[in-house]
């Protein structure tokens, strides 16, 4: 009898936690001021994918992810959050994050800002927004991979608090460039570290 009650209780607790997480990962569209300029921030929609792919192509010279990959990710609203930034109805950047509740890790899957809008605080804003959401769902770490040649992105991540880790050889599809693993300890931020 006790085992059945325990199983029911754990199932009920897990269901409640999943609902709290789903509610927390909701995102209300907003106008945000970033370094003196107004931007429209919204949860990514399937209809945003063509523009997301354009941004990827401008940033990376190709599209590391295809339409199908983004579509699958954006549809997974219980453990993924994809945000887009617009100004004057032009998509300027985006970020994607997956939330692994077994490892308590929020993993930035993808982030890109149009080159003409880089160094304006948009990328930093997007990462901070994901950090905030990650803390709300009790993630302990945030992780990402970055091209070893992308030193400007690495500088940004370091300023935010990410620590470099191991190098993943031949990580990127196409050119087989190595990736640098980076990790941020969110528990430090939750305890007032930043």
UniProtKB/TrEMBL annotation:
Tagged with keyword Acetylation: no
MF annotations from Gene Ontology: protein-N-terminal-alanine acetyltransferase activity
Source organism, top-level taxon: Bacteria
Alphabetically ordered keywords of this record: Transferase
InterPro entries: AcTrfase_RimI/Ard1 (IPR006464), Acyl_CoA_acyltransferase (IPR016181), GNAT_dom (IPR000182), MshD_Acetyltransferase (IPR050276)
Domain annotation N-acetyltransferase: ranges: 39-187
Protein name: Ribosomal-protein-alanine acetyltransferase
């Amino acid at each position: 009898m006790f085992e059945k009650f325990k199983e029911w209780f754990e199932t009920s607790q897990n269901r409640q936690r999943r609902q709290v997480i789903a509610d927390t990962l909701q995102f209300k569209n907003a106008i945000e001021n970033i370094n003196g300029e107004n931007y429209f921030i919204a949860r990514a929609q399937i209809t945003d994918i063509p523009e997301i792919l354009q941004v990827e192509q401008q940033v990376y010279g190709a599209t590391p992810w295809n339409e199908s990959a983004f579509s699958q990710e954006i549809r997974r609203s219980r453990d993924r959050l994809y945000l887009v930034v617009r100004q004057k109805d032009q998509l300027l950047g985006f970020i994607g994050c997956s939330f692994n509740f077994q490892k308590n890790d929020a993993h930035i899957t993808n982030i890109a800002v149009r080159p003409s809008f880089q160094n304006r605080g948009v990328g930093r804003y997007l990462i901070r927004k994901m950090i905030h959401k990650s803390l709300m769902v009790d993630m302990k770490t945030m992780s990402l991979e970055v091209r070893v040649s992308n030193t400007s992105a690495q500088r940004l991540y370091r300023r935010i608090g990410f620590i470099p880790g191991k190098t993943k050889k031949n990580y990127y599809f196409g050119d087989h460039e190595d990736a640098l693993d980076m990790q941020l300890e969110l528990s430090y931020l939750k305890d007032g570290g930043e």
